[in-house]
Amino acid sequence: MNIPSITLNDGTPMPQLGFGTWQLVDEQCYPAVRKAIELGYRHIDTAAIYGNEEEVGRAVRDAIAAGDATRDELFIVTKLWNNQHHEPEVAFQQSLARLGLDYIDLYLLHWPCPKQQQYISAFEGMAHIQGLGTVQSIGVCNFYPAALIELIEKTGVVPAVNQIELHPGFPQFELQKLDKELGIITESWSPLGQGKILAEPTTVRIAQVHGKTPAQVILRWHIQQGLVPLPKSAHNDRIAENLNIFDFQLTEAEIAELSALDSGRIGPDPMEFPE
Q1: Could you tell me which residues come within 8 angstroms of residue 211 by beta carbon, excluding any fewer than 6 positions away?
Q2: How close are the terminal C-alpha atoms of the chain, in Å?
């Protein structure tokens, strides 16, 4: 499967479709990641708080040993959790050790946590790690406009990625626009809206027109807008299904119809989280 790449603002290519691992734990995680890589996924997204970095790393190493992919072909992402904003270097080394890898392709600041008032120093620490060569690119998650602008002004570093909740029911168009203006790639977590928009009549009708599933149509909606969706599944058939989205095109009218769905935010508000 030839997944297209998007070039980050530091010149690094990143596969436009990723495999998410949130809530994949214990016996679910390892086989799911192995199957994803075997089928053709090259972008694997995890985080310290997911509690599965060891399983993800083992699956990656075993996939490489089996010849399913080379390390250079893979794009591995993990994240700095909220309780370690004061020690990003320590947190990064802990993640690297749990993954059992020599380097990480993208390290993300998981939440701004504005009440802690530490995201500036945390990101500065991440930029220092990047300079040491064990992480290729750095970025953020869940950053809203004011926090994003302050971060850039005070650190002088533009994040490569802003990974945010984004799906047709919550498209965040203004934040997408700002990211684009700043040269930041927008990644979509919960790209399927945790399933809430799959049964919408609009989604079902468009899927029937193209002979695709509702999930494939929604993921295609992300791809055609230059977004990077991170679907997650523990089921082999759905892992394969989510990959099979590069042989059809949505019309502009269909994209507009899907964009008009309004299910609202599913996850916490980054301006308030954690309380």
Answers
A1: 248
A2: 42
Tokens of 67: 């010849």
What DSSP character marks residue 274?
A: -
If you write DSSP's letter for every residue of 9-22 in order, what string do you get?
Answer: TTS-EEESS-EE-T
Q: Do the beta carbons of residue 108 and residue 138 sit within 8 Å?
A: yes
Residue 158 is classified by DSSP as -
3 state DSSP class of 99: helix
Is the CB of residue 105 less than 8 Å from the CB of residue 95?
no
Q: What is the pLDDT of residues 111-134, one digit of tens each?
A: 999 999 999 999 999 999 999 999
Q: Are 114 and 169 in contact (CB under 8 A)?
A: no
Strand partners of residue 80? 109
Whole-number Å distance between alpha carbons of 222 and 144: 19
Query: Of the residues 30, 41, 50, 107, which is catalytic?
Result: 50
Which residues are within 8 A (CB) of 256 and not within 5 positions of it... i.e. 6 or more apart? none
Whether the Cβ atoms of residue 25 and residue 52 lie closer than 8 Å to each other: yes
DSSP letters, 207-271, are HHHHT--HHHHHHHHHHHTT-EE----S-HHHHHHHH--SS----HHHHHHHHT------S--TT
Short-list 124, 209, 214, CA closest to 169: 214
Residue 119 annotated to the active site: no
Q: Which residues pair with 135 in a beta bridge?
A: 104
What pLDDT digit, counting tens, does each position of 18-44 carry? 999 999 988 899 999 999 999 999 999
